[in-house]
Amino acid sequence: MHSSSISFFALLALALSAAASPVAPRQAVAQNELKAGGGKGGKFGGKAGKGAGKGGAAGAAPPAAAAAGAGAANAAGAAAAPPPAAAADPQALQTSTTIDPSVIQTTDDGQNPPVDGQSAADVSKNNFANACALGLPQVPITNGLQITTGSCNPIPIGQIPSVDNMPSSKFQSPKNLDTIASNVTFNIVLATKGIQLGTFTNAQKTYFGNPQKLNGAGQIIGHTHIVMETIDSLTTTAVTDPTKFFFFKGVNTAQDAQGNVQVEVTGGVSPGAYRMCTIVSSATHQPAIVPVAQHGSLDDCVYFTATPGGAAAAGGAAAAGGAAAAGGAAAAGGAAAAGGAAAAGGAAAAGGAAAPAGAAAGTTGKAAKGGKAAAGKAKGAKGAQANGAKGKAGKA
């Protein structure tokens, strides 16, 4: 075949191939439409973007534009989200500055239909990846720091356990309403379950810095804290001030074979009343997140008092007081009994005196009655005699 004919057919094949190819792969288009900004996101979030990480969101498309772009992509034939990039390159997924389409949430505002008493939630097309950019520079990103004036944290929540793996805690010592000896070193003993304790990152550089992670058994990887506050009394209803606490300890040790951790309180506590609570956390100190809204408390609180000598001294004093009170009661009871006996004796004596007197009176009455009868008889006899005499006189 002539060389000019070969060139013609080669050019024709190239033209047909170009016409049949899309302008860009759908996955690349979708990822470019969902670019986002923020800080470093750890294992699950990756780096969340360049623009917002430097304090702005100029390079990210606004949500409306992103929605329009997504709509155009769908119209072009992107009916389903592409598979996650992790299937091809997990490492690349964690260093990417784009959100993989497979993790974009699709929930609405929760009010379809509306429900009385509920508020509409915000909706985002990019998982709120640029939410913290809206407050910059007035509200800085948390960036692993404990910023006392407030911040915005771009790190995702992360992995959430099942309901069968929600953590729970209970103080073993001091127990609720215990009385301990003041100013004496003691150990706090805390029992836990449903969490793997012992992972404790640098709270000065990684605070809220990673998503929550689970171990192979599906339990949160983290640690717990113990905090004590002084209170006016065990019956106080005053609301406490979270900025004021007496004792705080982040527990960086794992549980023992019984599921317990211990913390020493050197020098003990002063006499008074205390509230002691736990704060169970993920590795980077954020409160533990669980899968359902309705659940029992993940933490425990107990109330206890401290006195010189503790419960033994208080118990001895109470026993002494009780004995004294009992003795007093016994004495009073004895006096009352004696008084009662005397009164009873007096009553008996009086009764005894009254009885003979009554008997005498009865006898006297009887005698009087008899005397009266006798007198009546005598009077009758005398009258009879008088009448008889009178009759005799009349006759005479």
Automatic annotation (TrEMBL):
Q: Which UniProt keywords apply?
A: Signal
- State the signal peptide span: 1-20
- Establish whether keyword Signal is in the entry: yes
Q: Which InterPro entries match?
A: Appressorial_penetr-assoc (IPR053216)
Ranges annotated as biased composition (Gly residues): 36-58
Protein's UniProt keywords contain Cell membrane: no
Stretch list, region Disordered: 35-61, 102-122, 376-396
Identification of the protein by name: GMC-OxRdtase-N domain-containing protein
| Species annotation | Mycena venus
